[in-house]
Amino acid sequence: MVGIRAKGSDIIETARSLGAGSVLAAWTVVKESRFSILGAIITGFSRVVAEVGAVMIVGGNIAGHTRVMTTAVVLETRRGNFELAIGLGIILLLLSFIVNSVLYNIQKGGQDN
Fold it and tell me: What's the pTM value of the predicted model, to 2 decimals?
């Protein structure tokens, strides 16, 4: 939100002065603020992956209904199934690395620097 607010008003004014309608002006703001938006997506994804306690309190950790990978790691660790917990943790880390790498490359704009 801060990234869009910082650029948004100037971009909207410029787009409107060049004859853009409200939809095109809004789309221009989204295009120009894409790095801020992708940064927010990365931050949100990281928060979701890291939340364990809140998910267990709110969701209840019910198998087949509200269990997510982070709570499954905690549950399997408590049961003593360390191999499964480590395997799930590695999958979660790989997923996190893949998502962050893809979004990083998108933010770079595909340039090889």
Answer: 0.58
CB atoms closer than 10 angstroms to residue 40: 15
Task: Give whole-number Cα distances, 70 to 18, 39, 92, 94, in Å.
Answer: 49, 22, 8, 13
3-state secondary structure (DSSP) of residue 92: helix
Structure tokens at 86: 């480590």
Average pLDDT score over the chain: 80
Long-range contacts of 98-101 (CB under 8 A, 24+ apart): 99/42, 99/45, 100/42, 100/45
**How far apart are alpha carbons 41 and 52 in whole angstroms?**
19
Biggest distance spanned by C-alpha atoms of the chain: 65
